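Protein Record: Sequence and Backbone Structure Tokens
======================================================
Scope: a single protein chain, as residues and as a discrete description of its fold.
Tokens: labelled as protein backbone structure tokens, with as many entries as the chain has residues.
Position: the record begins directly beneath this header, with no further notes in between.
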Amino acid sequence: MQLKHLKTLLIPQDGAAKVTCMAWAPNNGKFAVCTVDRVVLLYDEQGERRDKFSTKPADSKYGKKSYVVKSMAFSPDSTKIAIAQTDNIIYVYKIGEEWGEKKVICNKFVQTSAVTCLLWPAEHAIIFGLAEGKVRLANTKTNKSSTIYGTESYVVSLTSNVSGKGILSGHADGTVVRYFFDDEGSGESQGKLLTHPCPPYALAWSANSIIVAGCDKKIVAYGKEGHVIQTFDYSRDGSEKEFTVAATSPSGQSVVLGSYNRLRVFNWSPRKGLWDEAPSKEIPNLYTITALAWKRDGSRLCAGTLCGGVEQFDCCLRRSIYKNKFEMTYVGLSQVIVKNLSSGTRVVLKSHYGYEIDEVKIMGKDRFLVAHTSSTLLLGDLGSNKLSEVAWQGSGGNEKFFFENETVCMIFNAGELTLVEYGNNEILGSVRTEFMNPHLISVRLNERKQRGVEDNKKLAYLIDIKTIAIVDLAVGCNLGTVSHDSKIDWLELNETGRKLLFRDKKLRLHLFDIGAG
């Protein structure tokens, strides 16, 4: 992962004017910055400032300067922002989908102490930490908040795992606590995970380990159950100061830590099972980095500073141009952004299992994506933005792909036909056949709505040159076979999959009713 400076979004001031927090919207379209003057600035994807709004105190009698905004997060649908304040309150602002829409407070959650950090991992559920040591959940639907767990120590940091189903909280006494809403079958423990030698202000949860750093100038990588895997010690480096903030890339393969005038980058090496330190990004006169935010597609990292500056960096492992029509940006080992150079549309191709993506190909009249990992196959339709990842054992790249059908990809490999529906991560079906011609296969997936039929998925193919088999893919059963007296050279199912039309070598056309046989 290399960081390349792109532009300055907010010009730094002469004195301390700390950027207190920043957040990217999940749909990648908006970026929010909050400075020490308690105003939220909204930027678009290109880094142009488009909007702003002022936050408000919990009680106007204490004045507009009675609080600081400590943290903020966008809702999963990118239309709201939650603001955590030191005057014991969280406000949720509805900012809408378009620029310039009226900002309306739609929820407020009053607390018993200052709100120090905040996440919004799932719909209706805001997770936040308090100065009194509690980690709580605010439900935006019911307007109520409840305690998830309590500790006796100030919450200094809060982060979630890559899927957003688990959280880690760092506390002033060095404790790091883990909690799962759903452990996704990992079987990892909950509760107090580890005690770090200093307050874990920089806390990151990557796909493979937990990285913690703070004022002792050491970066420690802990394993899934809190044992130390690696330590990077900078305490003897006179130019290094304390680590203030950390961010994990959306793929969970890279972590960036901010300190004084410097961003340190660490990349996970799956082959070694360890972290590799990449060249750090040093920027003189940047001062302390106080906030970091990574764009959800992994292509941009923003850093906010003590003097009120916001710098934007481009993040990528490598870039390539494909057929002079597409730009491939590898933003992580398991994540590639494919951009159509003529239309500017983008698709983010990501391995859900964290496998390394080898090479991305674009086939079928420049519409369909194909990429291999060590254990899976990634397929995608650029037109409808539907992506699939299915388990696939490597066959040396001997597969043949057919893209004649818009909803399903046909893959031939060693006498077997496999069907993958775009947008579905399970193989739809596979059958043995020697006939690779798309004219001798017909697939129909929910092409016409029918009363009382939820899932209509049918396949007709040749078992041998004179026998057609018809299969219901939704339930995986055989609907019947049609034996014929001469060679068949073309076949097709109708849209509902109830009738079969086929032609033989004597140029006779036959219509077969599948239900009646």
